[in-house]
Amino acid sequence: MTCKTALSRTFILAFMAIMTFLAASDLLLGAEGLPKIRVGVVFDKGGRDDRSFNASAWRGLDDAKKQLGIDGKFVEAMDDNAYEPAIRTFARKKFDLIIAVGFGQAEAISRVAADFPDRRFALVDAVSHLPNVRSLVFGDHEGAFLAGAAAVMKSATGRVGFIGGMDVPLIRRFDMGFRAGARHVRRDATTISNFIGVTADSWNNPPKAKELALAQYNRGVDVIYVAAGASGAGVFDAAGAKEKFAIGTDSNQNGMRPGLILTSILKRIDVAVLKTITDAQAGKFTGGKVEFGVANGGIDYAVDHHNAGVLTDDLRRKLDELKSQIAAGTLKVPDYYVEADRATYKK
Amino acid sequence: MKAMLFRWPWLTAILLGLLVGLGAAAVAGENPAHVLLVLLKAAGGTPYDLGMTMVYTTPLIFTGLSVAVAYRAGLFNIGAEGQLVLGGLAATAVALRLGDLWPAFAGSSGVMGRIVAMLICGLVAAAVGGSTGFVTGYLRARRGSHEVVTSIMMNFLAMALASWLVIEKLHSVDTQNPETRTVGNVFKAVEFSAFDGAPVTIWFLAGIAAAGLVAFLFDRTMIGFRIRAAGENPVAATVAGIDTGRQMIIALTLAGALAGLSGLGDILGGAGRFRLGFSSDYGFTGIAVALLAGGRPMAVVASALLFGALHKGALDLDFETDHVTRDLAMIIQGCVILFATARWFHGKKKS
User: Fold this and answer.
1) Do A74 and A48 form a contact (C-beta atoms < 8 A)?
2) How far apart are CA A128 and CA A289, in angstroms?
3) Tag placement on chain A: N or C end, fewer CB within 10 Å?
4) Nearest CA to B320 among B56, B15, B30, B17?
C-alpha cells in the first residue's frame, strides 16, 4: 500500500513537471507567424503515396512549396467519415486554401465551405456549386480512349483488359472511354472489364487487383489498363509475372515495371493544384468548375526512357494523331457522365 | 464509484502508455512536450475539439459496454463491428421505409415525433444487433462453437450483407459514394449546438445512460448476478443450479444489442445516412476500451472518453507535427492496453 502511494506521488510530481514544461514550450512554439499562405490537402483512402491519383496531387503541393514558398500540410483520410473533420480542422486552423482530393469528399467539402464562406476550397474530380469552391474536373474518358487505342495497337491477340478500382460512375467513365478507344482502332477488338470492389477500400487493394489481372492475362488479354489508385501495383506485379503489358494511370508509373508498362495516362492534377495555389496566392482565386482535358494538356500520355523501347515512334505518331482529333473536337469520345452515352454502356 | 473509476493501476497503464508513445515521438525527431500539448489541446482545447472527442467517444461507449457485458459472462465478443453495421443499417432502412410510407411524419420536426423516431431507430438497431448476438450465443451455449470464431465470421457476413443492401437496394442516386439516401428530418438525432459545429448527438447521453443501466443490471438484479456467477466460476454456478448456457445466450444477446446501437450517433447525426465503412473499427477498439475498464460499466465510459480523446488528438497530430502521424495514437493505445492487461493477468494469477 505504501509502495502504491509512493508510486502515485511520483506520478503526480512527474505530471506537474511535464505540465510546467508544456506551458513554457507553448510560449516558444506559439511565437511563429507566417506571412505566406497556408494550404491544406486532404487525400482520400488511397493515401498520398499511391503513386497514381493522390500522388499526382501531392506532387502539385510539393511543387507549390518549392516554387511559391507556401506552407503546405496534408492529411490522409483513414475512413469514410474522416473527410469532414479533416477539412473542417484545416478551415478552423485558418488555412487559406483547402484542397480535397477525390470525389468522395464532395459532400464534406460543400458542408464545410458553407460554414466558412471566407475560406477558399478546391475539389478534385467532383463538382461543388458553392462560390468559394473551385471544382477541378478532368476528361478521364479522353485519356482512357488513348489507353484503349494504345493497348489494341500493341496487342497481338486483339484482346485487351480494363481493371477499375471502385465500381462508380467515375471509373465506368474510364471503362467506357477505354472500350471506345479499343474499338476505334480495331472494330473486332475484345475488351474485358473488371472492378476491384464497391467500397473505398478498392483504391488500396493490390492483391485483389493482381488476382483480377492474372485472370485476364490467362484469358488471352495481353495489355491491361488499370485505373485503381494504389491497387495498380498489383496489376504491374501480374504483368511482371506473365511478361505481358500494362498501362498505368494518373501519375507516370512507367518506372514501376520498366519495359512492361506501355505508357501511363497522365492526369495532371499536379498542374491543376499548382495553378489553384498560384491563383490563391496572387489573390486571383475564383470558384466554379475548371476543366482539364487533352485539349489543354490536362490529360496526356507519358513517354520516358522506361517505355521508349515499347511505345514505338509509330505508336506515338498514331496516338498524337488521335490526341489532335480529340482536341479539335472532330473525334467524339463517349462520356459516361453524359446521359445519352450512359444509356449505351453495359457493364 | 470514484475510487473504482480512478484506481491507480489504470492510471499507471495510461501514463506508461503515454510515456512510451512520447518516447517514440522523441526518437522520430519530434519534441515530446509539443506532441503531448497537441494531443491535449486537440482533445479538449476548444468546444469544437471537446465535441469531436465526444463524437468519437459515443460509439466506443456502446461497443465497450458490449464487450464488457460478454466479458463479465466469461466470453469475448469480437462481433461488435458486424453488429454495429447491421444495427445501424437496419435502423437506416426502417427510417427510409417509414419515410416513403409517411412522408409527412418523416419531414416533421416536433419533439414527440423525434422521440418516437429515436425510439424506433434504437429498438430496431438493438433488435437486429441483439439477434446477431443471439446467434453467436446460441451456437456457443448449445452447439459448442467458440464465440470468438463465430463472431469473427459473423462480421464478414455482416459486411457482405451491408455492401449488397447499400449498393443494390438503398443506394442514393445523387452520389458516387457507397451510401444510402438521407433519412427524413424527424429521424435525425438531436444535436447539441454548444460544440461549434461538432455533431454531438443525444446518443452520447444515451451511451452514458446505457452504462448506468448495465451497471444496475450487474449490481442489483438477479439476471446480472447469474451472468456474473456463470462468468466467474461456471462449475460453481452449475452446481448452484444456474443454467450457464442460458446466461451465455443472454449475455451475448445483450452485447449484440448494445453494439447494434453504437453506430446511431454517427449515422443519424451529421450526414443522416448510412455509409459503407463509416466505422473506424469502433467494434475492435471497443475490446480495448472494455479491457482497460476491466469490464466495469461506468469505467467503460471513462475508458471510452480516453480512447475518443486519443482518436481526436491523433487526427490533429497530422496537422501540427512534421515527423509523427496519427499512428502515434495507435502506439499509445497499444501500450496502454499492454500495461493494463499485463496487470490484469498478474492480478488473476495471484488470486
Assistant:
1) yes
2) 8
3) N
4) B30
Q: What single letter denotes the amino acid at residue B156?
A: F
Map out the domains of chain A with their CATH numbers: 38-138+270-292 (3.40.50.2300), 140-267+295-342 (3.40.50.2300)
The residue to which cell 485476364 is assigned = A216
Per the listing, cell 491491361 goes with A224
> What does DSSP say about strands A261-267 and A245-250: parallel, antiparallel, or unpaired?
parallel
- Whether CATH 2.30.140 fits B2-345: no
| pLDDT at residue A246, as a whole number | 97
Partners of A267 in the β-ladder? A299
Q: Which three cell numbers stand for residue B40?
A: 491535449
Q: Does B315 touch chain A (CB under 8 A)?
A: yes
User: Measured between alpha carbons, how far is B272 from B189 in angstroms, rounded to an integer?
Assistant: 8
Q: What residues does each domain of chain B span?
A: 2-345
Task: Give A241-293 pLDDT, tens digit per residue.
Answer: 999 999 999 999 999 999 999 999 999 999 999 999 999 999 899 999 999 99
Amino acid at B331: I
A106 inside 8 A of chain B by CB: yes
The pTM of the full predicted model, rounded to 2 decimals, is 0.84
* B52: contact with A, CB 8 A cutoff: yes
pLDDT value, residue A133:
97
Cβ distance B33 to A199 less than 8 Å, yes or no, reads: no
Residue from the list A80, A89, A104 with its beta carbon closest to the beta carbon of B319 = A89
Query: At CB < 8 A and 24+ separation, what contacts does A2-9 make?
Result: A4/B8, A7/B8, A7/B12, A8/B8, A8/B11
Please tell me the predicted confidence (pLDDT) of residue A13. 56
Measured distance CA(B298)–CA(A125) in Å, rounded: 46
Question: Alpha-carbon distance B241 to B237, whole Å?
Answer: 6
Compare all CA atoms of chain A with the CA of B269 and give the residue at the minimum distance.
A81
DSSP state of A266: E
- Cβ neighbours, 10 Å, residue A327: 16
